[in-house]
Amino acid sequence: MSERLQKVMAHDGVASRRKSEELISTGHVKVNGKVVNQLGVKVDPTDRIEVDGTPLKKERLVYFALYKPRGVISSVNDEKDRKTVLSFFKKVPERIYPVGRLDYDTSGLLILTNDGTLDFQLTHPKYEIKKTYLVKVIGKLNHEELKKIREGVLINGKYKSAPAEVEVIAKAGNSKNNSMLRLTIHEGKNHEVKEMLKAVGHPVEKLKRAEFAGIGLENLQPGEFRQLRKREVRDLYDLTK
């Protein structure tokens, strides 16, 4: 059965589907000895695919949950030579990459895999995958501000965020000037949580993702990871059916 070249590359662990498309467009990929730089090309199981001269080898699909510490880049590599999430996976032979991203100063759950199909589905806006954060903010939110977040808040005068779930957990520490929130969103825009809270007058001081697509941190400590259970992987695919 023929499949799109970028999908096959993602399945075989070369890179995410988006990155595979970049490799194709920039002439890094050959099919049966000929360079292919047009997206949409379909290949058969018998076709020989090479990336920068290296034939594709099917890797076993692996799935990990990482507790990303603050001060680590959610990337495979970094041009400024900063520490990346892959530094925690030096003994993992598969070519894994993060599903989505967390900001440099944001900690919490990050899924890494070499399954390009799942990566694509979990990050595509149409699937509205839920992400839950624990947020320390400056000040105490009133009823009207919480209502705005729950209904969608205007950000930078440009667009309105999607409705979010939010609850005040407690005051943060002993300070009356900070609050701790639990906030769940299903959008994937950059800095979404920070922008939402900034828009209602409560800048974020600290941000941690506690859950992504139903996967939690469990007992992980910053810098630790675990392999996802088969049931968890099935549940992730069920979310995008």
From TrEMBL:
Supply one GO CC term from the record.
cytosol
Name of one Pfam family that matches: S4
A Gene Ontology biological process in which this protein takes part is:
enzyme-directed rRNA pseudouridine synthesis
* Enzyme's top EC category: isomerase
Q: Determine the domain of life of the protein's source.
A: Bacteria
What keywords were assigned to this record? Isomerase, Lyase, RNA-binding
Q: Which residues form the RNA-binding S4 domain?
A: 3-60
The enzyme's E.C. designation: 5.4.99.-
**SMART domains linked:** S4
- Tell me the GO molecular function terms: lyase activity; RNA binding; rRNA pseudouridine synthase activity
Concerning its family, UniProt says: Belongs to the pseudouridine synthase RsuA family.
Q: What is this protein called?
A: Pseudouridine synthase
Organism, by scientific name, is: Fructilactobacillus fructivorans
What is the taxonomic lineage of the source species? Answer: Bacteria, Bacillati, Bacillota, Bacilli, Lactobacillales
